[in-house]
Amino acid sequence: MIEIRNMSKWYGDFQVLKDINEEVKQGQTVVVCGPSGSGKSTLLRCINGLEPFQEGEIIVDGVSVGDSATDLYKLRTEIGMVFQRFELYPHMTALQNITLAPMKVRNKSKKEANAGAMGLLQRVGIPEKAYEYPANLSGGQQQRVAIARSLAMEPKIMMFDEPTSALDPEMIKEVLEVMINLSKSGMTMIVVTHEMGFAREVADEIIFMDEGSIIERGTDISFFQNPESPRTKDFLDKILI
Amino acid sequence: MFDAVINNISYLMGGYWVTIKLAFFALAGGIPLGILVGLGRISSNKWVYYPVTFYVNVIRNIPLILVIFWFYFVMPIIIGSPLDPFPSAVISFIIFEATYFGEIIRAGYQSVSKGQIEAGYSTGLTYIQTTRYILIPIALRRMLPSMITQSIVTYQDTCLAFVIGLPELIRRATIVDTLEVRSIQLFGFVAIVFLITCYIGSMISRRFEVKAEEGG
Predict the structure, then answer these.
(1) Is residue A41 within 8 Å of A34, Cβ to Cβ?
(2) What is the pLDDT at residue A222?
(3) ipTM score of complex
(4) Secondary structure of B136-201 in HEC code, one letter for each residue
(5) Which of the residues A144, A188, B77, B172 has the least number of beta carbons within 10 Å of its own beta carbon?
(6) Which of B112, B122, B135, B143 best tests the A interface by mutation, with the highest count of A CBs <10 A?
(7) For position A37, what pLDDT does the model report?
(8) Which distant-in-sequence residues (6+ apart) come within 8 Å of A20 by Cβ?
(9) Alpha carbon of residue A101 to chain centroid
(10) Residue B139 near chain A (CB below 8 Å)
């Protein structure tokens, strides 16, 4: 579903991503962890073309992201993205947030889009919040609306960029539950997170990034039990306490 | 009690009409120019950004009354013939107010988080759709209360045009006062006219502020 080959990216002279190779198969959930500034978010943003990269290639569902002939707008309809700070549109209700893209991009009728959105709100557990503005929702509720907004485009892939980092502890669980169900339903997912409980439960692969490189990868238990590099061990010690 | 006002009401209201016209033209020119200034201030083209920023910084650090004066006395030297007070005042106000409206527009634009724009892109919306449905509505909501407030300030500031002899409301009240010597009631009348009209304006502004808060 996603193939990244020898991909590198620079900001000016500074190399943020170094020779990244990764493959995500259909239905897999890959968890990306690592210290801040290690290039995790940038990697996600390169996959859906929010940021350009200079070397190598990224193939998403057979389409080359770096190819200048690629219609990035069309590509992004296939890749949902959930942000750390939710980024709901503050002037729209939860329902309107979800229906905007289906109506404008997929040309769905309002009735059809609303029905789909209500179904998704049901799925993320807050159908009663459909007509609330984001300012009246808790962080956990906002993030669930944001997930529903991405799902409304019926993407083939979902990417999550630290989806629970801006949440109070008691709200993390409600968001993770939605993500776990999504993963179990067969969605292809790339999740940047430090929630190792989530990783243990659903990750098919865990990759550890530091200073722009993938320095370790594992398929689950082995990753936690005997990390190969001292850098990974040090990091895991810190986040697992 | 208001005899001096009542006896000269048509003369005074004629002055108020000049005030209204001046405020109207100042806003009709100042807001569109302000939009251009605002866009210049967020431009990544340095040939646009630096000249516009220079203009904004210079004008915003000069009292309005000086701009009015300066323009009225300097322009005849530049263009070779004297300007009437009314067009001169209108142009001074447009030059001055555009910098303030420009800053409101810049701040409104910058208040929209980059993440909200990217959220739009990530669902497949195009640049135009993102601008149309996300950027402009959010920015507009945030800047509308300040735009209305600045419009009220502009309306009040029109009084300053009396320094170049424009026969607007205050100027005419002064003229009546020299004949009738009824300063308290005449200027009291002027104050009431401004108080009522500005109060209505600020009520409107507050309504939009509440709306902007509800919608984030």
Answers:
(1) no
(2) 67
(3) 0.89
(4) HHHHHHHHHHHHHHHHHHHHHHHHHHHHHCCCCHHHHHHHHHHHHCCHHHHHHHHHHHHHHHHHHH
(5) B77
(6) B122
(7) 85
(8) A4, A6, A7, A8, A43, A56, A213, A214
(9) 18
(10) no
